[in-house]
Every structure is written in structure tokens, then in C-alpha cells.
Specification:
The chain is α/β, with parallel strands linked by helices. The chain contains twelve helices and 15 strands. The mean pLDDT is 90.
Length: 310
């Protein structure tokens, strides 16, 4: 296969290209800086060039400014939105205008499509979109930005991705130090549902959807057994042989991380109904196994890093 990837330097992108390389596939990385490697091609989302995706078996869009790296002032909120919406729109335009269109556009989205907090409600791909926060509105526009490709007959899959568990990045490494020091804390009341997926299953699901010609539309990339925040905390503490008896109230979280806290930690009980119906098998469907796998690290990513060492 020939796979074109935008956002290939992030946590998911690195693991995805490692998995494709490991199976002998060609990966073309779209980068905004000057190309520095044979598999890189410079591109400008403001000037979409259809030739960059012509004949590709799949185009995978994982681009977007990180959510947890900075405080959400007005400028960074604008960057969060534009880095997602504009990139998705550019790739959709390229796919639609290519002389030999790609077989599929697989575009990242997120479970915040469903809102900031939906309590105990089970959310499937047919559940109503949320309208109660910044991320839900961005995510809806993010998905809509691919409409040009869909209208041109290109198969489009939206990845409504849950919290990705990995030892290489994301939430898990940030929690390990306080947990190992006995300062592990349940966030808020502990009753909020956290939907999750291991990095391994995330990559496997992306490849699954890209390679099956009858899959299209939104898919919840989440394990089938979401857990409450208190149970997540207990499972992580247990996985590293510690206890976690503290509780961090949401007002304290707002002081520490600003508006991001409630937006990314509200209760969303997401069920991967369409992904399961399509035949996808989860390697780590429960939180205990998922955290153990995350702490071991992703083998494809480790192999990629070893191959990059001098």
C-alpha cells in the first residue's frame, strides 16, 4: 500500500507509520517544513496540491495542535480550531481534485463531538452532537470540513477517538510521577465516565477502517468498556503497585489547567457500536489490560525509534 499521512510526527502518527513500515508498506509524510527525509514531502494547507495524494491507497489525517501543551487563551483556541479544520478541508480538496483520487480519506476527530459532559448516557455513533462547549463545536466543523471529498465520491471515515493510553506520550506518562510518589488523585467526584483506547488498538482500528472498502462515516475509536474516573485511578495505581486515595476537585483543576480541564475530562460513556459491528477485535477491551499494555510501550513505536538511532 501507499499511504499518505498528515500529522505523522505525533503519538498516533509515529506508531501508525511504524506499523505500516513494519509490514512493508510505503508511507509518505506530509510536512509543513522543508523535507528532511526521503519519505517526507512538503505541503501547504493554504495551497492544496492534489498531486500529493494521487493514486494513494489511503490518506490519513492526524493533524491538530496538542490540547494539553498550553493554556487555552484566545490565540491558542484559534490554533486548535484552525489546525484541525483547515487541514481536513485542504486534504479533502486534494482528494476531490486528484486525477486518480485516493481510495479513502481517514480523518481524525474526537469523542468531544458528543459534548463536554453527557453523564451516564451511552453514546453511539448515532447519538446527537453536543453543543455545550468549545471542543464539541470544533469537532463538528472538523468532520464537516471533509465534505468536499465525500461529495466527490471519495470514501471518508471519521475517527471519533477517545483517550489514547500509551507509555510514550499523552496522559499516562504525565500521571506516573505523582502516582509513583503516592500522590495519585481521582479527578473530580470520580463518577465521570472516561472512554479510552490503547495506542495499539488505535493504530489497528485506523488500518482496519482504511483497508475495508465498505466502511465509511463516523466510528467511535474507544474500547467497549468505558470506566468511571475513580476506577481508572485505582487501575493505574494498581498497575504500578501503588495506592491512590486523594481526590482533586474540579475547581482546583481549573486553576491548574484553565478551561481545558472540564472540556477534556467531562463524562462521556462512548460505545464503539459501528466499529464492533464491522468486525474489529479489540486487543485490550478493559482498563486493567489496557494500562498494563500502555506501561509496556508500543512495540512498533519502539522499533521505529531503534531504527532511527545513529
Amino acid at each position: 500500500m501507499r499511504v499518505v499521512v498528515a500529522g505523522s510526527s505525533g503519538l498516533i502518527g509515529g506508531a501508525l507509520r511504524a506499523a505500516y513500515h513494519g509490514d512493508g508498506h510505503e508511507v509518505v509524510r506530509l510536512v509543513r517544513r522543508p523535507a528532511q527525509a526521503p519519505d517526507e514531502v512538503r505541503w501547504d494547507p493554504l495551497r492544496p496540491d492534489p498531486r500529493l495524494v494521487e493514486g494513494a491507497d489511503a490518506v490519513v489525517n492526524l493533524a491538530g495542535a496538542p490540547l494539553g501543551d498550553r493554556r487555552w487563551n484566545a490565540r491558542y483556541r484559534a490554533l486548535i480550531a484552525s489546525s484541525r479544520i483547515d487541514t481536513a478541508s485542504a486534504l479533502a480538496t486534494m482528494a476531490a481534485r486528484a486525477a486518480a483520487p485516493p481510495s479513502v480519506l481517514v480523518s481524525m476527530s474526537g469523542i468531544r463531538y458528543y459534548g463536554v459532559d453527557r453523564g451516564d448516557e451511552e453514546l453511539t455513533e448515532t447519538s446527537a452532537a453536543g453543543t455545550d462547549g468549545f471542543l464539541p463545536l470544533v469537532t463538528a466543523r472538523w468532520e464537516a470540513a471533509t465534505g468536499t471529498a465525500a461529495e466527490a465520491g471519495v470514501r471518508v471515515c471519521h475517527l471519533r477517538t477517545a483517550l489514547v493510553l500509551a507509555g510514550e506520550g499523552g496522559l499516562v506518562p504525565r500521571l506516573l510521577t505523582p502516582f509513583r510518589c503516592g500522590l495519585g488523585s481521582t479527578l473530580g467526584s470520580g463518577r465521570a465516565y472516561w472512554s479510552f483506547l490503547t495506542l495499539h488498538d488505535t493504530v489497528a482500528a485506523i488500518r482496519f477502517l482504511a483497508e475495508r472498502p465498505r466502511t465509511e462515516g463516523p466510528y467511535n475509536l474507544a474500547a467497549p468498556n468505558p470506566v468511571r474516573a475513580a476506577d481508572f485511578t485505582k487501575a493505574l495505581a494498581s498497575a504500578i503497585g501503588r495506592t491512590a486515595r486523594l481526590r482533586l476537585p474540579l475547581w482546583a483543576l481549573r486553576i491548574g489547567v484553565g478551561q481545558m480541564g472540564p472540556e477534556v475530562l467531562g463524562s462521556l460513556r462512548v460505545i464503539p457500536e459501528r466499529l464492533s459491528a464491522a468486525g474489529f477485535c479489540f486487543g485490550y477491551p478493559d482498563i486493567e489490560a489496557a494500562l498494563r499494555a500502555a506501561l509496556k510501550g508500543n512495540p512498533d513505536t519502539q522499533r521505529l525509534r531503534r531504527s532511527s538511532d545513529p
